[in-house]
C-alpha cells in the first residue's frame, strides 16, 4: 500500500488524518514540521506528502519548493491542507502543490484526491507498454 507523510504542527490534525488513512490501509508517517519531514524524506520513500502551510522551522511553501526541486522527490503527490488565504494557497499550487484542501477538511474529498494522485503516480512510474511486432 502507499506510503504517505503528513506534516502539520497541529497534533489533532496529525492524528486525525493518520487515523483516517490508516483505516483505509495506507502506511502513514507523521511529523510536526518541515525540517523533520526532510530527515524522513532523505531516508524513506513516500508516494504522497500532505502538508500544512503555516508551521515552525520550515513552512509548507518551503517544503513544496524543496520537494519539487529535488529530482528524487519531484514525482511525489503533494496535498496542501491549510487555513491560509487565497493568495498563499495559489502560491502553494504554483510552486508545485497538486491539490489544496481548506481546513476543516472533508474526509471523502481527501480520500478521492489521494486515490487520484496514486493513480497518476502509477502511470508515471509504469507507463503502458506498447505492443512490439517483430518485423523479421
Keywords:
136 residues, alpha/beta, Rossmann fold, five-stranded parallel beta sheet, 43% helix
Structure description:
The structure is a single chain. The protein has 136 residues and is of the alpha/beta class. The chain has a single domain (3-125), classed as Rossmann fold (3-Layer(aba) Sandwich). The protein has helices at 11-23, 34-41, 60-68, 86-95, 107-125, and strands spanning 3-7, 27-31, 48-51, 77-82, 99-102.
* CATH superfamily descriptor: Response regulator
Residue stretches low in confidence (pLDDT < 50, at least 5 long) are none
Tell me the name of the CATH class: Alpha Beta
Largest sheet: 5 strands, parallel
**Average residue pLDDT:** 90
Please trace the helix and strand order, writing H or E for each element.
EHEHEHEHEH
Name the shape in a single word: globular
User: What is the straight-line distance between the termini?
Assistant: 42 Å
Question: How many distinct folded domains?
Answer: 1
Strand content: 15-25%
The portion of residues assigned to helices is 40-55%
By DSSP (H or I, 4+ residues per run), the number of helices equals 5
Amino acid at each position: 500500500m502507499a506510503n504517505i507523510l503528513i506534516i502539520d504542527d497541529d497534533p489533532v490534525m496529525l492524528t486525525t488524518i493518520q487515523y483516517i488513512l490508516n483505516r483505509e490501509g495506507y502506511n502513514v508517517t507523521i511529523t510536526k514540521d518541515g525540517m523533520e519531514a526532510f530527515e524522513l524524506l532523505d531516508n524513506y520513500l513516500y508516494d504522497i506528502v500532505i502538508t500544512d502551510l503555516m508551521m515552525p522551522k520550515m513552512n509548507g511553501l518551503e517544503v513544496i519548493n524543496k520537494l519539487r526541486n529535488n529530482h528524487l522527490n519531484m514525482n511525489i503527490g503533494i496535498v496542501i491542507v491549510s487555513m491560509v488565504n487565497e493568495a498563499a494557497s495559489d502560491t502553494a499550487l504554483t510552486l508545485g502543490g497538486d491539490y489544496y484542501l481548506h481546513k476543516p477538511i472533508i474526509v471523502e474529498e481527501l480520500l478521492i484526491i489521494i486515490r487520484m494522485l496514486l493513480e497518476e503516480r502509477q502511470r508515471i512510474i509504469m507507463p503502458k507498454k506498447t505492443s512490439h511486432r517483430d518485423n523479421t
